[in-house]
Design a protein that fits this description.
GNAT_dom, about 180 residues, globular, protein N-terminal-serine acetyltransferase activity, single chain, eight-stranded mixed beta sheet, transferase, Acyl_CoA_acyltransferase, Ribosomal_N-acetyltransferase, alpha+beta, Aminopeptidase
Amino acid sequence: MYKAIVNDDTYISILEDRHANELYQLIDSSRESIRQWLQFPDLTHKVEDTRAFISRSLRRFANNDGYWAGIWYKEQIAGSIGFLGIDWEAGRTEIGYWLGSPFEGKGLMTSACRTFVAHAFHDLRLRKVEIGAAVGNIRSRAIPERLGFTQEGIIRNYERLHDQYLDRVIYGLTQQEWLDQQAMS
């Protein structure tokens, strides 16, 4: 299945059932850091929950409506990145992502997102990529900012997490903006 080389130490590959145990162990060992901004760790209690997530992702991939991939760093699963769905009519997708705590601060997610953005524009021929993050999640917000995305707005009270409502900032990048950036670098 789909595999993309990010750099000498890192690659991205579609999650498959055989990855369930390793992915669950990463989620479980990083539960506290991940759950600060995302709900899924509180819904992932056993390997079977991770297996069900992978199965749903593979169905979405088969239906041409997005998918999740694992990020491997030095042959260890480090996190996950995905297209949260693809609006083929509008030519738009949103990228979601998370990293296990031992892999933070290495530039892995910025590199993985760059690879996914290139895939969206060059291979899928989409016209726009969006990334959303909680307003207070400065580390997650830094990724689209580093990649030249434009902050398009803030959705107030976007989601409820741990008995509080979080606002969400939305970033967007068009295919033409990406191509212009690539031509300048």
